[in-house]
Amino acid sequence: MNWITNYVRPTINSLFSRREVPDNLWTKCPECGSMLFHRELSENLNVCTNCDHHMALTPRDRFTAMFDGGIFTEVKVPEAVADPLHFRDQKKYPDRMKEARRKTGEKEAMLVAEGEIGRTPIVAAAQDFSFMGGSMGIYVGNAIIAAAERAVKLKRPLVLFSAAGGARMQEGILSLMQMPRTTVAVEMLRDAGLPYIVVLTHPTTGGVTASYAMLGDVQIAEPNALIGFAGTRVIEQTIREQLPEGFQRSEYLLDHGMLDRVTHRKDLRRELITITRMLTGMPPAVAGDLPAPADLPVAEPSEQAAKPDATGDAPAPDAKK
Prior knowledge:
Blueprint: H1 3-16, E1 26-28, E2 35-37, H2 38-43, H3 59-66, E3 72-74, H4 93-104, E4 110-117, E5 120-127, H5 138-154, E6 158-164, H6 172-176, H7 178-191, E7 196-205, E8 218-221, E9 227-228, H8 232-239, H9 250-255, E10 261-262, H10 265-279, H11 303-306
Parallel strand pairs: 5-6, 6-7, 7-8, 7-9, 8-10
Antiparallel strand pairs: 1-2, 3-4, 4-5
Helix pairs in contact: 5-7
């Protein structure tokens, strides 16, 4: 046995070998190209610290940042038919679903939850663009109906975060049927006199824009979000004209009356608290509102403090010597 080859050399190599760096420590901003450290980006709610570009945020991360203390309860959504059309393109539809669930860790493209923001009870629903482009299928329709029914039952406002590429082609006409279904769900809220607030995030397009995403009592959007029905090239080829710069971006839509506000992600929670409390007739939220501390017994004054001094007067507790 050659101990130099078998022991000394491997030991030296292990001491001086380069450590492997995980691939997920840094994220490249798609807008300005800056390399952002994952922890710093997460603390900034997935907003680029260099150019303020708003990147995608998963529904679970969004709810954790929005609800008081990051505490929320998921609302049960009825199951949808797994593969109603037995659709297949390059892959089978069930195989695509398995891949999306493995990639995102979520069951489907929408998450529904209930909780409090600024001591204001609400029901919230959010789409996950990383799950098959946030496409609207039967499950998403069921989720919005479940959210509306829960809001009506608890008499709470409904806040919806949209992020979708449109209807899910693997479900064909059944996905398009979710447009009238979700419109009826919004009407349930209107009949109950409950606010429906929509926050449009990048991107919100297709049949989602043509239905529940543009039916809110208050329409808010994140900065520079792409919002529209048809794509820019399709519109240009149809009308045979070049569209203005920034067309279908949230700032352009705000200037042309399709939105009420464009709000930075850091300010969105405070904005939603103000709007929901205003629409439900609640008083303004108190900054730093926390539960009152438990009543503590009043401490008895010490004998030394009660003992009079040479003048016959008890010294003040904060008297300087």
